[in-house]
Amino acid sequence: MSDHGCAPDPEAPARPPSHHDTPSLAAFQTDLPPTSGAREGFARHRAIVCPGLLESGLLARLVAACDRATYISDPVAGLGNREVERPAVVGTAISLALRRPALLGWLEDVTGCGPLAGVEGRVVQTRARAGDELAWHDDLNAGGRRRLGVTLCLGNAPYEGGVFEMRGRPDHENLLRFKHDTPGTALIFEVSQRCEHRLHPLVSGGPRRIFAGWFVE
């Protein structure tokens, strides 16, 4: 394990993926896919796309609950603005659902980021309006417990813009661009000193609604 909590692959090529070719896995549901292909993809892009991370019936109930939820403005100093679910009913449910020991172990094996002991997060959304975006940042916090970031799509509204972009540090190597447009699909990505990410503003449509959180030690 590196000093940043993840084991880097020095042989990984530098080709930047788009949101169409970021490595994707078969639907999780209850069976975790083999680690070999996922491990290779994460080493190359420092991220993996996981469709079907939640059981379909549970996902449908959570999406419906998100539609009924209340959201409040949550500005982030120096980065931008978004809205967050209050009270955090759906966010808490997803945090609990993702704490499956088998999933945590699988992610430790695939990513080299660990140990993983739990999940923290909340439902957030951005709209097509000035200021709803997030500038470059790394998700590292003072406590140092975050090992992997996770964003999981919870919205059905189509939108333009709103692309998640990730790059390496300090060289600014392009790692991926990803657009959340399928409910239940998750992007799991490295949180460390050697990469950072940002969220582009929506151009139209939306809102862009996701669970945003972290797998923590």
Q: What is the share of helical residues?
A: 10-25%
Radius of gyration of CA atoms, rounded to a whole number: 16 Å
Topology as a string of helices (H) and strands (E): HEHEEEHHEEEEEEEEEE
Estimate what percentage of residues fall within beta strands: 25-35%
Instruction: Tell me the strand order in the biggest sheet.
Output: 1-11-7-14-5-4-2
Instruction: Please count the beta strands (DSSP E, at least 2 residues each).
Output: 14
Number of helices: 4
Question: Structural class given helices, strands, pairing?
Answer: alpha+beta
Any low-confidence stretches, pLDDT <50, length ≥5? 8-20
Q: Main beta sheet: strand number and arrangement?
A: 7 strands, antiparallel
Described by the principal axes of the CA atoms, the overall outline is: globular
- Please report the distance between the alpha carbons of the first and last residues: 14 Å
User: Could you tell me the mean pLDDT?
Assistant: 89
